[in-house]
Amino acid sequence: MTTDLNRRAFLGTTGAFVAGSLMASPLSNLAYSQGKKIKAVLVGTGVRGTSFWGKTLVENFPDILEFVGLCDINPGRLEYAKTYMGVDCPTFVNFEAMVSQTTPDLVIVTTQDSTHHEYIIKGLDMGCDVLTEKPLTTDETKCQAILDAERRSNRKVIVGFNYRWGPYMTKIKELLQSGAIGRVTSVDFHWYLNTYHGASYFRRWHGLRQSGGTLWVHKATHHFDLLNWWLDSDPEEVFAYGDLEHYGSNGPFRGDKCRTCFHKKECKYFWDITLDKRSMDLYVNNEHHDGYIRDNCLFRPEINIYDKMSAQIKYRDNTLVNYSLTTYSPYEGWKIAFNGTEGRIDAWLDIPFMKGENISQAEMHEMEMSQQDENLQSEPVIVHKLWNDLEVKNVTFQRGGHGGGDKLLHDQIFRTPGNKDPYDRSAGIRDGAMSILIGIAARKSIESGHPVRIAELTDLEPRPRRI
Ligand SMILES: NC(=O)c1ccc[n+]([C@@H]2O[C@H](COP(=O)([O-])OP(=O)(O)OC[C@H]3O[C@@H](n4cnc5c(N)ncnc54)[C@H](O)[C@@H]3O)[C@@H](O)[C@H]2O)c1
Description:
A hairpin with a 5-residue loop joins strand 13 (376-385) and strand 14 (391-398). The strands form 2 sheets. This protein has a 9-stranded mixed β-sheet with strand order 14-13-12-11-7-10-9-8-15. It has a 6-stranded parallel β-sheet with strand order 3-2-1-4-5-6, with helices on both faces. Helices cover 35% and strands 21% of the residues. Helix 5 (116-125) runs parallel beside helix 6. The two termini are 36 Å apart. By secondary structure, the protein is an alpha/beta fold. The chain has 17 helices and 15 strands. The structure holds nicotinamide-adenine-dinucleotide (NAD). The site of nicotinamide-adenine-dinucleotide has 21 residues, from helix 2.
């Protein structure tokens, strides 16, 4: 397809949305000027911003989108971002100056989690649509401020929930939606982060609750969004426990950072960042600007997040969920089971002994981060109706890029935003809010020792059916 045809197709589907599709992406509402590319700016030129929302968009959507500005607090990382992404737009350390000078249609927010609200609100107030990375934000006050900002603007927020788009996740949605096990009554959902992926959160800003809102918000927002979407109901009440027993001050020793540590030999978590060119370019070469140390000690005493977490969530439709997240598992993977009035669904990914495999956890983490693994894999979902034999539904998908979900998410946002989606995978501000509110309620429950109602946190009222 030529560039012009692509653009016409894009604008054509945008028009179709205006005519009344209810299932389309919130971004299909954008008032892009006729025949012109989307003018986008990006704030937060770290690893996620420069790759998934940077270089990948530049390479895959040159006919649809152009970057007109990049912003970050680190001027060195900004310069690197331009080269890495292959763009020639101006760079800014001041967000308002960037938006007033470049007048973008779309602001993409990929900064540290605790700062998302600042750019989402300013972006909306300055007349732009906003696409933000998860989590929407890190506490209920900022969440309310974002909700208010979207309401007073005539612009939209989309949250980049990529997990929904993985074919394995979509298969579960399809089965539940079709009533394969009747009405869902309870769920067991357990997520295990290994000592590579789990540990990575404790090396940098994610280890501080004031920066990432704890993994209840930073990481579990993905899982809570999946639950909300799969169950198609809103969370009503949360009770949780959690503690920090492995990382932080629990470590047997500590150093300044891995590069200069005296415990390189005995520390199982030693990571030689100097062997990783991308991390050197992004972080080490620019740490003199802002002191952001990427290979920080994961046993540093200021770490104040949980490394084991467990919650019970009661949904508005009375579904009960048992959820847990651990961050120092020998293997990475997850399991879920849905109990319904007519049967049960069991699903899991990456649990090595379920396949009799011994997967290298280090290689697996590397592949997932690089998004490069295009190999296909086939995994079962078990549907077991009451009084019947179980059925195995095999789902084939790509290993890298969150099971191929990352690419589908991009295509839906930028290439076919007006298309109706039978699985309702586009996520807007309410989805972003409901997923973080479970994590925020869990934090508050641990602190207070009491269950926390979602309705107490913002003015959003939980609904039995999401839409
Ligand atoms: N959906 C996913 O699978 C996924 C994966 C990775 C990261 N993320 C999200 O992407 C975002 C970025 O994560 P990352 O891993 O790239 O982190 P990162 O640390 O590599 O990048 C964050 C960038 O934000 C900049 N920054 C910090 N404070 C700022 C401020 N006040 N104003 C402007 N810029 C500021 C930093 O200088 C840095 O360049 C996070 O919100 C994270 O949750 C999502």
